[in-house]
Every structure is written in structure tokens, then in C-alpha cells.
Design brief:
heterodimer, A: mainly beta, 11 strands, B: mainly beta, 6-stranded mixed beta sheet
Chain lengths: ~110, ~120
């Protein structure tokens, strides 16, 4: 089944404890992206990647890192999470920037 | 400043009604346009791409007006299952020096279709 998977789906952590949210797609898509969604602010792009080893900042990259060492995986790294990074995170992939396929989301709480 | 603005919601309509959403974008060099649908607590899913000539898919019609910098979504004969949040998405391309992967989402318009 063609899909985008994210792990974990839910995470509660403490300020400053490094964490990684994984994203994997099995559709051989070149484009992948991370978003956060907050009430009243909508979906905002954090980082995106047009291909392996190519990443670019979106609108809200501060406090996040990404890597794209292989086509299928695009992990999101929070080196030192803070409470303002509490949010719902979505990973997405796309073959052509037309239709994006979103993962099920990761709900992160930083206390 | 990059912006994608949508009609404020929520829209509460009876079944069978026709409802229209508008979305404006801030710069004429934007590359491509989409409408996504998001159900509560779920991931967004593509509803329609929006082409210059306009496009229709069943009860849904999307249109682009480049001169006025807005896109629209028309839903005819609303169904209960149309209740969701509708997201306008614009690909800003390399307008601001970035690449074509920079997608801007509107904040969404919530639609509630009542029996």
C-alpha cells in the first residue's frame, strides 16, 4: 500500500531533550516536506527536500533540522525542544509538487 | 510578505446548498494552486488542482483569476460528508529566492453541512 508513515504518532517530552520524528514513504517520491499545524495559524512549512541531499528552509525552520540521506526517509530533528514547538506535525511526499501525500501526523507536546 | 488569505469561517449550510470559498494570494508570480480538504484531526488530502482555464470535478468547481490574484472553490448540492476544513495552497515558486518547493497554506475555511 502506497503510504507515508510517521513515528511516533504521539510524543510527550521535556524541554531540551533531543528528539527525532521519522518520516518514510514507499512511493519513490523525490519531494518531501515537513509542516506544523497550530490552531489559528494553519499549516506552516518547516523544511522541504526536492531530492536526496537537497533540503531547503520553509517558513518556520528555526529550532528544527532535517536530513535526506536516502529518498524514502526524511527525519525531523529537534535538537533542544521548547514548549513553543508543541504542535501537530505532518510529513508529506509528492512526485511532482502537484498532489502531496500526507502522513497521519505526529502530535508533540513539550513540557 | 508571502500570504495566502482565505474566507473566514465557519460556513454553516443546509444539505443541498451551494457554497463558495475564495482565497487570495499576495503575489502574481505564484506558480500553482490547489485546494485540499482536511477532516478533523486527520491529514490534508488533495481535493483539486486549480488551472487557469478552471476545472470541474463532479459537484466541485475550481477557478483561478490571475489578474485579481484569487482562486475559488464552488461546491454544489452540498452533502453532509462535505463537512470539513478546506485549505487553499499556493506554490510560491522561486518568487522569494527559494525553490519551487515552498508551499504556502491558507489557514483554512471550515464548512459544516447540516441536515
Amino acid at each position: 500500500e502506497a503510504q507515508v508513515t510517521q513515528n511516533p504518532r504521539y510524543l510527550i517530552t521535556v524541554t531540551g531533550k533531543k528528539l527525532t520524528v521519522t518520516c518514510s514513504q514507499n512511493m519513490n517520491h523525490e519531494y518531501m516536506s515537513w509542516y506544523r499545524q497550530d490552531p489559528g495559524l494553519g499549516l506552516r512549512q518547516i523544511y522541504y527536500s526536492m531530492n536526496v541531499e537537497v533540503t531547503d528552509k520553509g517558513d518556520v525552520p528555526e529550532g528544527y533540522k532535517v536530513s535526506r540521506k536516502e529518498k524514502r526517509n526524511f527525519p525531523l530533528i529537534l535538537e533542544s525542544p521548547s514548549p513553543n514547538q508543541t504542535s501537530l506535525y505532518f510529513c508529506a511526499s509528492s512526485p511532482s509538487l502537484e498532489e502531496q501525500y500526507f502522513g497521519p501526523g505526529t502530535r508533540l507536546t513539550v513540557t | 510578505r508571502k500570504e495566502v488569505e482565505q474566507d473566514p469561517g465557519p460556513f454553516n449550510v443546509p444539505e443541498g446548498a451551494t457554497v463558495a470559498f475564495n482565497c487570495t494570494y499576495s503575489n502574481s508570480a505564484s506558480q500553482s494552486f490547489f485546494w485540499y480538504r482536511q477532516d478533523c484531526r486527520k491529514e490534508p488530502k488533495l481535493l483539486m488542482s486549480v488551472y487557469s482555464s478552471g476545472n470541474e470535478d463532479g459537484r466541485f468547481t475550481a477557478q483561478l483569476n490571475r489578474a485579481s490574484q484569487y482562486i475559488s472553490l464552488l461546491i454544489r448540492d452540498s452533502k453532509l460528508s462535505d463537512s470539513a476544513t478546506y485549505l487553499c495552497v499556493v506554490n510560491m515558486g522561486d518568487l522569494y529566492g527559494g525553490s519551487q518547493g515552498n508551499l504556502i497554506f491558507g489557514k483554512g475555511t471550515k464548512l459544516s453541512v447540516k441536515p
